[in-house]
C-alpha cells in the first residue's frame, strides 16, 4: 500500500508549475494542478464533503495596496493612525497572509478560497475589491484568473467562499453577482444536495465552481449556496495547543450530512502579538515557527463523513501543505484495499 501511495504521488507531482533556476522542487513549485482528475475511480462517486481538500485563508491577500485608503473592515482609530505612511507599511506586514497568486495556489493544489470583499470609498463605479485591512486586487481580476485555470483544467473543482462583505449596498451585491455570472457562466454549480456533489456528477454536467454567499442575496440566485452549507469554525487563538484542541472538538461535532466543513488551521494575532512583532509581521512572528506543528496535526487526520474535509492555512507555500492534505485521500483508498482482504 505504501508503494501504491508513492506511485500515485509521483504521478500527480510529475511536473513543476514554475521551475526555479536551481532545478529543485520547492513546496510552492510542485504541481498539483490536476490532482482531482488524478484521484482513483472509486473516489469519483464519493461526496466532496468526504474528501480532503486544501484551502487558503484570506486567499487574495498576496497583494495589498499601501496607497489606497484603509479598508472599512478597520476601526476608526486604525484609520486615523493610517494617515501616517509608516503605519500602512506595518499594516501590510499583518494583512498579507499568502505569498502565492490565485493561479499559483491553484497549481499548487488549493481548491478552497476564503474571500472578503468591499467597495472602495470615493469610487464612482460599483467596482468591488478584495479586502483585508488594506484593499487588494479587483474581484473581477481574481475571478478571471481562476476561470482561466479552470478552462485549462476542466476536471478541477473550486469552492469560492464569499464570507465577509464591507460597505456594500444592494447595487454593489448585484454588480458582484453579475460579475460572478460573467466570469464563470456554465461552470457555476446550482445549489442541490451536498451528498450529490461528487466528482462524477460534476464532471458529467461540466460544473466546476461552487459559490458560497454569506448574505441573504443568495436566495435570489440558484447558483449561490448559503453560507450555512460550509461552516468554518474559528479558534481565534495564538496558541497551537488551543488551536489543535479546537479543531479536534469542532470535527467531533461536525454534522455527518448536509454540509461541507472547513477546518481553519490558522493562528490569529492579538493586539499584544502585533505590538511585540510589529516589524516582523504575521509570517515571521506567528506563522513561520508554528506551521510545522500545525502540519503535523494535518498528517494525523483522515477524511470521511466525520473526518476532515476542507483544511485552510496561511502561507500555504511555506510547507508542503496542499500535497499533505491531498494525500490524506489515499487513506480512503487504503480502506477499500483492506476491505477486500
Automatic annotation (TrEMBL):
Entry protein name: Phosphatidylinositol specific phospholipase C X domain containing 2
Record gene name: PLCXD2
Alphabetized GO MF terms: phosphoric diester hydrolase activity
Domain Phosphatidylinositol-specific phospholipase C X: 42-214
Keywords: Hydrolase, Lipid degradation, Lipid metabolism, Transducer
Any Gene Ontology biological process: lipid catabolic process
Domain of life from the UniProt record: Eukaryota
SUPFAM superfamilies reported for this sequence: PLC-like phosphodiesterases
Amino acid at each position: 500500500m505504501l508503494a501504491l501511495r508513492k506511485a500515485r504521488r509521483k504521478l500527480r507531482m510529475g511536473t513543476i508549475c514554475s521551475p526555479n533556476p536551481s532545478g529543485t522542487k520547492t513546496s510552492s513549485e510542485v504541481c498539483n494542478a490536476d490532482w482531482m482528475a488524478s484521484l482513483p475511480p472509486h473516489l469519483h462517486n464519493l461526496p466532496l464533503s468526504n474528501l480532503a481538500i486544501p484551502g487558503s485563508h484570506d486567499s487574495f491577500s498576496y497583494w495589498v495596496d499601501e496607497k489606497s485608503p484603509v479598508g472599512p473592515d478597520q476601526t476608526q482609530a486604525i484609520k486615523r493612525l493610517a494617515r501616517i505612511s509608516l503605519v500602512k507599511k506595518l499594516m501590510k506586514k499583518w494583512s498579507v497572509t499568502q505569498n502565492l497568486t490565485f493561479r499559483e495556489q491553484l497549481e499548487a493544489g488549493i481548491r478552497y478560497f476564503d474571500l472578503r470583499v468591499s467597495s472602495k470609498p470615493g469610487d464612482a463605479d460599483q467596482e468591488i475589491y478584495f479586502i483585508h485591512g488594506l484593499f487588494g486586487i479587483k474581484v473581477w481580476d481574481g475571478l478571471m484568473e481562476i476561470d482561466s485555470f479552470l478552462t485549462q483544467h476542466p476536471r478541477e473543482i473550486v469552492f469560492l467562499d464569499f464570507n465577509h462583505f464591507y460597505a456594500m449596498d444592494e447595487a454593489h451585491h448585484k454588480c458582484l453577482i453579475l460579475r460572478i455570472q460573467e466570469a464563470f457562466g456554465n461552470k457555476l454549480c446550482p445549489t442541490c444536495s451536498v451528498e450529490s456533489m461528487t466528482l462524477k456528477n460534476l464532471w458529467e454536467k461540466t460544473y466546476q465552481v461552487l459559490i458560497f454567499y454569506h448574505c441573504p442575496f443568495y436566495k435570489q440566485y440558484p447558483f449561490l449556496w448559503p453560507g450555512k452549507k460550509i461552516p468554518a469554525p474559528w479558534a481565534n487563538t495564538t496558541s497551537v495547543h488551543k488551536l489543535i484542541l479546537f479543531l479536534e472538538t469542532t470535527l467531533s461535532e461536525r454534522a455527518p450530512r448536509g454540509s461541507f466543513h472547513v477546518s481553519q488551521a490558522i493562528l490569529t494575532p492579538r493586539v499584544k502579538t502585533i505590538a511585540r512583532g510589529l516589524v516582523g509581521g504575521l509570517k515571521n512572528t506567528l506563522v513561520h515557527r508554528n506551521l510545522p506543528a500545525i502540519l503535523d496535526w494535518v498528517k494525523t487526520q483522515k477524511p470521511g463523513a466525520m473526518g476532515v474535509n476542507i483544511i485552510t492555512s496561511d502561507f500555504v507555500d511555506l510547507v508542503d501543505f496542499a500535497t499533505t492534505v491531498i494525500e490524506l485521500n489515499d487513506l480512503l483508498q487504503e480502506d477499500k484495499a483492506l476491505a477486500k482482504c
